[in-house]
């Protein structure tokens, strides 16, 4: 049987194999990667144009609303993605890699894991960008919330020159006991259901206790229980519990940038049972509801921030919907599932997150919120009661935060939605690295360098003032103020 010319050889006259090309490639490694990561070929009609200017006009379609009274849309337009079940697809030919054996192991495998994770790559069910809308009824219901003034000026907090991310600062080595925390911080006895605002000295909404969907028909307790069960199944297949934030297991998914990456890529998940378990978790409808509520909470309390996130990541999606896809129906591009069993983070800064952006943290598990699991906001001097099933949004890159320890025999998990600041910088520089844009687009580079002056002060304008949030919602979502 004729299999064609062998890799690394060129055909001479009469079809006879010619002298082999001198490319230092270990084909055993590439073949092994090919067997373990089998992907379908993209249909020609669905390949993107790779024009960064495409898709800047966002038509709002397929809206889902913030869940209230336990009601859930029967079809939110989110595709049911297939689980990667291993060697069930036609292998694709891999191009020769001009790299050494060591680089093939180190770079080739990581690149394959990042770019070809198998989440949503299905030619019969192409990716769809899910957008969100805040209804007028929901906007009016959340117009007059309980407010608490924190005597902090965010202009004094530290960020990088371009205000894309925070300053790198070390985390604490261990969690502080509850007794010591109550002596140094003001306790906020939040019940975890109704939303509350924290207002700074400039009347900006800087932290939101978003709570949970309320109403007599709410089934949020059942949603919470099913999400905990789904995350517990993933924890069973993960062996290592090493984590720089604490002693617990975790897994991250979605689009990110940083840590030496030359371009944004999907976060890699270890192939095999872990990848299959994570795929199953990402298809869980209750997980969709929980992260959708957290993402819509941003739009409800910080419409300007929601607009910036939506426009930025819609541009990524229009650039390549397969490579920069949504893994969950939320305005956030990345998520970390902290699987426990005792998720208690030491005080730290998420310095690589967007400096003025909020992360959304949803607490899960079975623990006594009166005795532990509180959220520490060190710069604000607050210790916030954080019951399971509730969500809080705050800027994690500039505020040192962590958790109070929980009691023995209890377990705690959490879901964190976030966005890396480097993703916004990469898009602002014409979908290119900053150092590369210096010679690729000198005019853009010079203009961005001029804007670095006063960037943090301008970045703070993304927060809505408590007496202007209705007008901001009306402008972004078209709701009646």
Characterise this structure.
This protein has helices spanning 27-36, 101-115, 136-141, 178-184, 220-237, 273-282, 285-301, 303-319, 421-428, 434-440, 442-450, 455-459, 469-477, and strands spanning 146-149, 186-188, 196-199, 205-211, 249-256, 265-266, 334-340, 359-366, 375-377, 382-384, 391-394, 401-403, 411-418. It is of the alpha+beta class and 481 residues long. The strands form two sheets. Strands 1-3-4-11-8-13-7-5-6 form a nine-stranded mixed β-sheet, sandwiched between helices. Helix 7 (285-301) crosses helix 8 (303-319). The N and C termini lie far apart (72 Å). The model is unreliable at 1-13, 15-27, 29-99 and 112-124 (pLDDT under 50). Residues 66-75 have a biased composition (Acidic residues). Residues 1-21, 40-96 are annotated as: Disordered.
Features:
single chain, about 475 residues, alpha+beta, Double-stranded beta-helix, 9-stranded mixed beta sheet, 4-stranded mixed beta sheet, 13 strands, about 15% strand, globular, disordered N terminus
């Amino acid at each position: 049987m004729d299999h064609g010319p062998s890799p690394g050889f060129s055909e001479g006259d009469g079809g006879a194999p010619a002298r082999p090309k001198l490319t230092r490639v270990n084909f055993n490694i590439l073949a092994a990667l090919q067997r373990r990561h089998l992907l379908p070929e993209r249909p020609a009609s669905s390949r993107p144009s790779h024009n960064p200017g495409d898709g800047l006009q966002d038509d709002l379609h397929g809206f889902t609303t913030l869940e209230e009274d336990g009601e859930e849309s029967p079809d939110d337009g989110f595709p049911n993605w297939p689980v990667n079940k291993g060697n069930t697809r036609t292998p694709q030919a891999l191009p020769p890699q001009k790299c050494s054996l060591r680089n093939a192991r180190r770079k080739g495998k990581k690149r394959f894991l990042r770019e070809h994770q198998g989440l949503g790559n299905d030619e019969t069910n192409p990716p769809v960008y899910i957008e969100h809308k805040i209804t007028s009824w929901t906007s009016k219901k959340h117009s007059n919330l309980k407010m608490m003034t924190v005597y902090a000026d965010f202009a004094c907090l530290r960020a990088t020159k371009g205000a894309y991310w925070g300053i790198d600062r070390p985390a604490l080595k261990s969690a502080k006991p509850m007794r010591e925390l109550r002596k140094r911080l003001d306790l906020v006895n939040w019940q975890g259901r109704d939303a509350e605002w924290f207002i700074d000295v400039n009347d900006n909404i800087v932290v939101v206790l978003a709570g949970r969907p309320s109403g007599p028909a709410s089934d949020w307790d059942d949603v919470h229980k099913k999400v905990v069960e789904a995350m517990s199944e993933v924890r069973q297949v993960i062996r290592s519990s090493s984590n720089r934030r604490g002693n617990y297991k975790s897994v991250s998914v979605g689009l990110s940038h940083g840590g030496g990456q030359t371009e944004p890529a999907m976060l890699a998940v270890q192939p095999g049972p872990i990848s299959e378990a994570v795929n199953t978790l990402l298809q869980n409808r209750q997980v969709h509801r929980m992260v959708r509520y957290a993402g819509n909470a941003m739009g409800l309390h910080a419409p300007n921030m929601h607009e910036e996130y939506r426009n930025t990541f819609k541009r990524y999606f229009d650039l390549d919907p397969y490579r920069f896809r949504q893994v969950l129906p939320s305005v956030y591009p990345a998520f970390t599932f902290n699987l426990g069993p005792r998720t208690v983070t030491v005080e730290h800064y998420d310095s690589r997150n967007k400096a003025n952006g909020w992360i959304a943290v949803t607490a899960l598990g079975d623990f006594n919120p009166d005795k532990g699991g509180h959220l520490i906001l060190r710069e604000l001097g607050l210790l916030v009661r954080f019951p399971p099933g509730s969500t809080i949004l705050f800027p994690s890159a500039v505020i040192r935060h962590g958790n109070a320890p929980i009691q023995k025999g209890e377990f705690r998990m959490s879901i964190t939605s976030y966005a890396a600041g480097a993703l916004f910088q990469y898009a602002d520089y014409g979908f290119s690295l900053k150092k590369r844009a210096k010679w690729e687009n000198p005019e853009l580079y010079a203009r961005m360098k001029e804007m670095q002056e006063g960037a943090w002060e301008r970045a703070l304008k993304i927060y809505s003032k408590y007496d202007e949030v209705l007008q901001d919602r009306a402008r972004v979502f078209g709701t009646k103020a």
